[in-house]
Design a protein that fits this description.
Blueprint lengths: L4 E2 L2 E9 L4 E7 L4 E7 L8 H17 L7 E7 L2 E7 L6 H5 L6 H20 L2 E2 L8 E3 L5 E3 L6 E2 L21 H4 L7 H17 L9 H10 L15 H9 L11 H12 L5 H12 L26 E4 L36 H15 L90 H9 L20 E9 L7 E4 L7 E8 L10 E10 L2 E8 L3 E8 L2 E9 L11 E9 L2 E6 L2 E7 L8 E6 L11 E11 L4 E9 L5 E6 L7 E8 L10 E9 L2 E8 L3 E8 L5 E8 L10 E9 L2 E6 L2 E7 L8 E6 L11 E11 L2
Parallel strand pairs: 11-25
Antiparallel strand pairs: 1-2, 2-3, 3-4, 4-6, 5-6, 7-10, 8-9, 12-23, 13-22, 14-19, 14-23, 15-16, 15-22, 16-17, 17-18, 19-20, 20-21, 24-35, 25-34, 26-31, 26-35, 27-28, 27-34, 28-29, 29-30, 31-32, 32-33
Helix pairs in contact: 3-5, 3-8, 5-7, 6-10, 7-8, 7-9
């Protein structure tokens, strides 16, 4: 009989029932929303183990608070029966989708990215799910995937085991080999194995192994080689074979180190515009994961050596070409970096690792000894091991395996210590939007200008100076020192904590769409007192119609796009290495918001490029605290200092043109005609010819003041350099240099360069990837910014030209 009310929740209907719980659709009159209410059945009311699991699930999910984990709203008891209130997931489960057949690889990559991020969050806190399966992957009404059912998680630091010694926990179809042999030292790689099984099932519609009993299924995970997915789906990219093999490696040391590494591998395969040479390299790297396949893997071609004799030339003003307005900047992604593979021991045709033979005895004992004590709540056809069911969701698959505990005969099994997998969150950057190009305003110069003293250094003297260059030092966080006028503030104040279930905010009285925000947030209390958070609400057109970037004291940061009834996770990461948690300590919080792209800085460190394409409208802006209910203490305050907003608008460009090659030993330049010390500059350069035909280079000069300036240049040999000219070409030293692996080298191919110069620090990007943090403290003068080419000798061909598009300069405070 369905109850009418549980606590304050009005029950609408039963939407799922399993061996461990019943799930109802309910209405919460306090918040006027529909929720899912999960209740422990009466028959388990007096079972301490089941009550403990139920309670642990609530606490675990509340602790995680991740955008891709089904959130818990409430927890309580009704007449002695525990219940759990969660977000209602109306989009069904992954089991439902798989019932309709395989899932497209692009969609599978999106699902895997969310699940990988959620798992890495759990693993970073020592929490292992142990029961990943399609019925525990739920979808909301917008189609976003969420991870559910944390009832049988393993907490690595916990001393309270909820399973008896020797018991096996999990669902056999998705259990890792170490789960089968009862390893008590499980880590996140066990979940990665299960995620590999789920990926195989998403791409093929079938599980990798098939068996008619739980014991035989477990033996297949231990004994059988990983199936080659291309034999089932030959239309898939070849790299999928190695991705599955690595995720489901029998030895956990040979699997991906993190779930994000696994999802990134699949994303790399599905990236549109991924060049064939890059794919060949990807496939070659994946092939190296399996030692027995190495002899069949194609050898990688070594990168071109960096020219040891390359030296800068003298300077000349270019002959600008006024082109028609350029086409819009493309939205293709830059090259994808793939996790470094480890050699794979287990191959599709290889033998079984020696340790596995010791495990066979365990499984045989399970088969022969009749150790399966199946609970009465399961049918004879269902087989699963461990605690909870899949009833976190309003969609319950009646045919889904439900985990139950299995008491196994005690067998001594050696276990190996493993290290926690580290989270490497990644983000997918987008491009800065540009307006219709404006041609350069400088008058064309028919012939190269006569070199000035600033341009007359000899190549020999520069080479000698470069040889004596000293390594750069780490600069401090940049202080505000530009000439830009704030549109709001800066102001100091406090954010009052209130126990009112609302975010505490301080709004600016300006609402630009594009801006620079800077503030210093003082910690409200130390970590021993409680958790806290701070963040920025921006582009807000109405309540809950906004973008948010939030930083939590546990190191997690998230970017969300919120709309009424919808909260879309965009990006996340971990800033634990940069966050100051001291009592009375503070954190410098800075953001650049420019069209579809943003840049996030914390304590002078660049954290991430942000994808803001979902909302580019102007709107209200506020700093806040208490974004998460558990992150504030009533009566406490979060002080802040220097909260200010500055406009982001180009002072030059976007401009396009050509830098014509003339064999005269002079650097070719085109000026922005500005005078800035802090700025963001970008340009898209077009290669004058293929790197295989001749070497080329291009880049920026900046903070040009008379004969003092910086040169930042990339070269087709695969390297970059920052040089500081101090008065003459004879007095120039290399500040920093390095290698590049993401340059497009073909004729007429393009590379986007972006430089953020902010106080003592510069941030250099190539094709939307951060290349280096630069020390530019030696020259703090304002000056011009120029695009340039032919910095090195022999890096041009007479009559050719290096094109540039969307050359734009935006001042910073």
């Amino acid at each position: 009989m369905t109850p009418e009310k549980i606590g304050r929740y009005e029950i609408k209907q039963e939407i799922g029932r399993g061996g461990m719980a019943t799930v109802y659709e309910a209405y919460d009159p306090r918040f006027e929303r529909t929720v899912a209410l999960k209740m422990l059945p009466r028959e388990f009311m007096h079972e301490a183990e089941f009550r403990a699991r139920f309670t642990r699930e609530a606490r675990t999910i509340a602790t995680l608070e991740h955008p891709a984990i089904v959130p818990v709203y409430d927890f309580g008891e009704e007449d002695g029966q525990p219940f759990l209130v969660m977000r209602l997931m109306t989009g069904g489960s992954l089991s439902d989708r798989l019932a309709e057949g395989p899932i497209a690889i692009d969609e599978a990559a999106i699902i895997l990215k969310r699940l990988g991020s959620a798992l890495d969050r759990a693993h970073s806190m020592g929490i292992i799910h142990r029961d990943l399966k399609p019925s525990n992957v739920l979808f909301d009404q917008y189609g976003d995937a969420f991870l559910a059912d944390f009832g049988i998680v393993h907490v690595s630091s916990s001393t309270n085991a909820l399973t008896a010694s020797g018991s096996l926990v999990g669902t056999p179809t998705y259990m890792s080999p170490e789960q089968v042999y009862g390893d008590k030292q499980l880590d996140g790689r066990s979940d990665i194995y299960a995620l590999g099984v789920i990926l195989f099932q998403m791409l093929t519609g079938n599980t990798p192994y098939d068996a008619d009993t739980p014991a035989r299924m477990m033996m297949k995970h231990v004994m059988d080689p990983v199936p080659a997915i291309l034999t089932v789906r030959p239309d898939l990219p070849p790299a999928c074979n190695e991705i599955i093999s690595k995720a489901m490696a029998k030895e956990r040391d040979e699997r991906f180190a993190s779930a994000t590494d696994l999802s990134s591998a699949l994303t790399a395969v599905t990236e549109r515009g991924l060049e064939r040479p890059t794919m060949q390299k990807l496939e070659a790297e994946l092939s190296e994961m399996q030692a027995e396949l190495m002899e069949d893997a194609p050898e990688e071609t070594a990168a071109p050596p960096v020219r040891a004799t390359a030296v800068p030339l003298e300077t000349a003003t270019s002959t600008p070409v006024v082109p028609p307005p350029p086409p819009p900047v493309g939205t293709g992604s830059g090259p994808v970096s793939f996790p470094t593979p480890t050699p794979q021991v287990q191959t599709s045709g290889g033998g079984v690792p020696k340790w596995i033979w010791a495990v066979i005895a365990v499984v045989l004992l399970l088969c022969i000894g009749g150790a399966f004590a199946i609970y009465s709540v399961l049918s004879d056809e269902e087989f699963a091991l461990g605690g909870d069911d899949s009833t976190n969701t309003p969609q319950v698959d009646e045919d889904e395996e439900e985990p139950v505990d299995e008491e196994a005969t005690a067998v001594a099994i050696a276990v190996r210590q493993t290290e926690e997998a580290e989270v490497d969150p990644t983000a997918t950057p987008t491009e800065m939007p540009t307006e219709t190009a404006v041609p350069p305003t400088k008058e064309p110069t028919p012939e190269p200008a006569e070199p000035t003293p600033d341009a007359l250094g000899t190549r020999q003297s520069i080479e000698a100076t470069r040889a004596a260059a000293a390594p750069p030092t780490e600069p401090p966080p940049p202080p505000p020192q530009g000439n830009l006028t704030a549109v709001f503030g800066p102001i100091d104040g406090t954010i009052q904590h209130d126990d009112d279930d609302f975010i505490e905010t301080v709004y600016a009285d300006a609402s630009p769409a594009n801006f620079v925000m800077r503030t210093e947030i003082v910690n409200p209390y130390g970590p021993e007192t409680g958790d806290w958070d701070f963040g920025l609400i921006f582009r807000q057109s109405d309540v809950d119609d906004e973008m948010r970037l939030v930083v939590r004291s546990d190191g997690l940061w998230t970017l969300n796009d919120r709309n009424p009834g919808e909260d879309t996770f965009v990006q996340e990461g971990d800033v634990s290495d940069f966050l100051n948690l001291d009592t009375g300590g503070s954190n410098s919080f800075e953001m650049i918001v420019a069209g579809e792209v943003g840049f996030f800085f914390l304590n002078g460190e660049f954290i991430s490029q942000l994808d803001l394409s979902a909302n580019t409208d102007a709107g209200d802006i506020a700093i806040g605290a208490g974004f998460y209910g558990a992150d504030e203490i009533n009566g406490e305050v979060t002080p802040f200092r220097g909260f200010g907003l500055w406009p982001v608008a180009p002072v030059s460009g976007p401009a396009s043109g050509e830098l014509v090659h003339v064999i005269d030993d002079l650097i070719k330049l085109e000026s922005a005609d500005v005078d800035e010390v802090n700025f963001m500059a970008e340009a898209t350069f077009t290669n004058p010819f293929a790197a295989s035909e001749n070497d080329w280079d291009y880049g920026f000069s900046f903070r040009t003041n008379g004969s003092f300036k910086y040169w930042l240049v990339v070269a087709s040999e695969g390297n970059w350099q920052l040089a500081d000219r101090q008065g003459s070409a004879d007095d120039e030293e290399t500040v920093a240099e390095g290698d590049l692996d993401n340059l497009n080298l073909g004729a007429n191919e393009q590379n986007r360069l972006r430089l953020i110069a902010w106080g003592n620090v510069g941030y250099f990007f190539v094709n939307d990837e951060l290349v280096a943090k630069l020390n530019i403290a030696n020259n703090q003068d304002s000056g011009d910014i120029e695009v340039m080419t032919a910095y090195y000798f022999d890096h041009e061909i007479e009559g050719e030209a290096t094109g540039f598009e969307n050359f734009t300069v935006v001042p910073l405070p």
